[in-house]
Amino acid sequence: MNSFNFGRKVEICGEIYYLSRDMEKVAEAMKQCSEKMMELSGDQSISKEAMMDAVREKSRETIDTVLGAGAFERIFAEEEADILNLMSLVDFITEEINQWKTELAAKVMAGKAMLEKRNER
Protein backbone atom coordinates (compact mmCIF):
# COMPACT_ATOMS: atom_id res chain seq x y z
CA MET A 1 0.00 0.00 0.00
CA ASN A 2 1.34 3.44 -0.93
CA SER A 3 1.03 6.39 1.37
CA PHE A 4 1.38 10.14 1.07
CA ASN A 5 2.35 12.62 3.74
CA PHE A 6 3.80 16.10 3.88
CA GLY A 7 6.44 15.31 6.48
CA ARG A 8 9.61 13.30 6.62
CA LYS A 9 8.89 9.89 8.13
CA VAL A 10 11.62 8.20 10.18
CA GLU A 11 11.61 4.95 12.09
CA ILE A 12 13.30 4.90 15.47
CA CYS A 13 13.25 1.80 17.67
CA GLY A 14 10.39 0.36 15.63
CA GLU A 15 8.13 3.40 15.95
CA ILE A 16 7.31 5.87 13.17
CA TYR A 17 7.91 9.57 13.80
CA TYR A 18 7.54 12.60 11.54
CA LEU A 19 10.16 15.32 11.60
CA SER A 20 8.75 18.71 12.47
CA ARG A 21 8.10 20.84 9.40
CA ASP A 22 8.95 23.98 11.37
CA MET A 23 12.57 24.15 10.20
CA GLU A 24 13.20 27.40 12.05
CA LYS A 25 12.12 25.87 15.35
CA VAL A 26 14.11 22.70 14.65
CA ALA A 27 17.24 24.67 13.74
CA GLU A 28 16.98 26.73 16.90
CA ALA A 29 16.51 23.63 19.08
CA MET A 30 19.48 21.89 17.45
CA LYS A 31 21.63 25.02 17.86
CA GLN A 32 20.72 25.37 21.54
CA CYS A 33 21.46 21.69 22.12
CA SER A 34 24.86 21.98 20.48
CA GLU A 35 25.70 25.14 22.43
CA LYS A 36 24.67 23.48 25.71
CA MET A 37 26.86 20.45 24.96
CA MET A 38 29.84 22.71 24.25
CA GLU A 39 29.19 24.67 27.45
CA LEU A 40 28.97 21.49 29.52
CA SER A 41 32.08 19.95 27.99
CA GLY A 42 34.12 22.99 29.06
CA ASP A 43 32.73 23.21 32.61
CA GLN A 44 35.25 21.51 34.90
CA SER A 45 33.24 22.36 38.04
CA ILE A 46 30.19 20.26 37.15
CA SER A 47 29.91 16.67 38.38
CA LYS A 48 29.52 13.82 35.92
CA GLU A 49 26.00 13.13 37.19
CA ALA A 50 24.93 16.77 36.90
CA MET A 51 26.41 16.94 33.41
CA MET A 52 24.50 13.82 32.30
CA ASP A 53 21.27 15.19 33.79
CA ALA A 54 21.75 18.43 31.84
CA VAL A 55 22.60 16.52 28.64
CA ARG A 56 19.50 14.33 28.99
CA GLU A 57 17.24 17.30 29.66
CA LYS A 58 18.52 19.35 26.70
CA SER A 59 18.38 16.25 24.49
CA ARG A 60 14.80 15.58 25.65
CA GLU A 61 13.77 19.13 24.70
CA THR A 62 15.45 18.86 21.31
CA ILE A 63 14.15 15.39 20.43
CA ASP A 64 10.61 16.32 21.48
CA THR A 65 10.83 19.51 19.39
CA VAL A 66 11.97 17.60 16.32
CA LEU A 67 9.88 14.41 16.65
CA GLY A 68 6.91 15.53 18.74
CA ALA A 69 6.02 15.73 22.41
CA GLY A 70 6.80 12.54 24.32
CA ALA A 71 9.11 11.11 21.66
CA PHE A 72 12.11 11.05 24.01
CA GLU A 73 10.24 9.02 26.62
CA ARG A 74 8.97 6.52 24.04
CA ILE A 75 12.38 6.10 22.41
CA PHE A 76 14.19 5.60 25.70
CA ALA A 77 11.48 3.57 27.44
CA GLU A 78 13.56 0.39 27.18
CA GLU A 79 17.05 1.75 26.51
CA GLU A 80 19.24 3.94 28.70
CA ALA A 81 19.60 7.52 27.49
CA ASP A 82 23.38 7.49 27.91
CA ILE A 83 25.71 9.81 26.06
CA LEU A 84 26.44 7.33 23.24
CA ASN A 85 22.77 6.61 22.57
CA LEU A 86 21.88 10.30 22.70
CA MET A 87 24.71 11.30 20.36
CA SER A 88 23.84 8.50 17.93
CA LEU A 89 20.19 9.54 17.90
CA VAL A 90 20.97 13.24 17.45
CA ASP A 91 23.40 12.38 14.62
CA PHE A 92 20.70 10.24 12.95
CA ILE A 93 18.12 13.01 13.27
CA THR A 94 20.57 15.60 11.93
CA GLU A 95 21.32 13.42 8.89
CA GLU A 96 17.61 12.93 8.24
CA ILE A 97 16.93 16.66 8.51
CA ASN A 98 19.78 17.47 6.12
CA GLN A 99 18.62 14.87 3.62
CA TRP A 100 15.03 16.16 3.84
CA LYS A 101 16.18 19.75 3.29
CA THR A 102 18.10 18.62 0.21
CA GLU A 103 15.05 16.79 -1.13
CA LEU A 104 12.80 19.79 -0.45
CA ALA A 105 15.21 22.11 -2.25
CA ALA A 106 15.22 19.77 -5.25
CA LYS A 107 11.41 19.72 -5.29
CA VAL A 108 11.28 23.52 -5.14
CA MET A 109 13.70 23.76 -8.07
CA ALA A 110 11.70 21.21 -10.07
CA GLY A 111 8.48 23.10 -9.31
CA LYS A 112 10.01 26.38 -10.45
CA ALA A 113 11.26 24.77 -13.66
CA MET A 114 7.80 23.35 -14.34
CA LEU A 115 6.18 26.76 -13.81
CA GLU A 116 8.72 28.43 -16.10
CA LYS A 117 7.96 25.85 -18.80
CA ARG A 118 4.24 26.52 -18.45
CA ASN A 119 4.80 30.26 -18.71
CA GLU A 120 6.81 29.79 -21.92
CA ARG A 121 3.77 28.36 -23.69
Tell me what portion of residues adopts beta-strand conformation: 5-15%
Order of strands, widest sheet: 1-2
Number of helices: 4
Instruction: Give the class from helix and strand content and strand pairing.
Output: mainly alpha
**Helix and strand run:** EEHHHH
Unreliable runs: none
Distance between the termini: 37 Å
Radius of gyration: 18 Å
**Shape annotation:** elongated
Would you kindly provide a brief summary of this structure?
The chain has 121 residues and is mainly alpha-helical. It is built from four helices and two strands, in the order ββαααα.
Secondary-structure topology with pairs:
Layout: E1 9-12, E2 15-18, H1 23-42, H2 48-67, H3 71-75, H4 83-120
Antiparallel strand pairs: 1-2
Helix pairs in contact: 1-2, 2-4
Can you walk me through this structure?
The chain is mostly helical and 121 residues long. The chain has helices spanning 23-42, 48-67, 71-75, 83-120; strands spanning 9-12, 15-18. The chain has one domain. Helix 1 (23-42) packs antiparallel against helix 2. The protein is elongated, with a radius of gyration of 18 Å.
Which features does this protein show?
121 residues, mainly alpha, two-stranded antiparallel ribbon, 4 helices, 2 strands
